[in-house]
């Protein structure tokens, strides 16, 4: 990240357009964070299948019996199914068949340029096929889940647990550009590139816009740690405001990924699921 910051700082002095293009490529090609051995061991206990989606081979994972009710797990940007490993056994004990997958260009799925709407589209296809009673999403996966649940208004979901959530896409862009010290002219060009790629204004891509229209979920629970250094808790608080009847649970001393393996989250899942 330090080398990228230095490179972009120099490049935008020469050409903000070239710097914006490099930023766009960076944001369209998620980094792969290597799973730990015990996370891979949990994936190895699953039934693995490969699903073809556009130009991608999508890796999916299933635990449990065919006859069980379904829990669907949706990871975040630069995340993967293995991040949810700590929740598999608690969900199986509650009688769920658990289904997860690695999104396009994530985890063990094939790689290539991707965007938010690719992520939503593959979720849509899974939702229609498996009809989950419970959805558990993490980080940017909560935004993806909200868009897909809204798209699938014909389906009914009993519970949705958001384990952290961003609030809007513009805020994500600002966080990345602040980290890399990107100038306003370069950011403006980057925003136009993203909007052209998505075919929609980024100002429409926010959780308030999605969540206030969702009517097909019985119970929504938002879980976030006040010590999350990657995604500040204020973003989930904004989402909580958008969902009038949602429950907000604020934890302490847990990081952005550590929360997924915490005893506190397992207890919440046991209570709600």
UniProtKB/TrEMBL annotation:
InterPro entries the UniProt entry points to: AB_hydrolase_1, AB_hydrolase_fold
Domain AB hydrolase-1: 73-165
Organism superkingdom: Bacteria
Record-given protein name: AB hydrolase-1 domain-containing protein
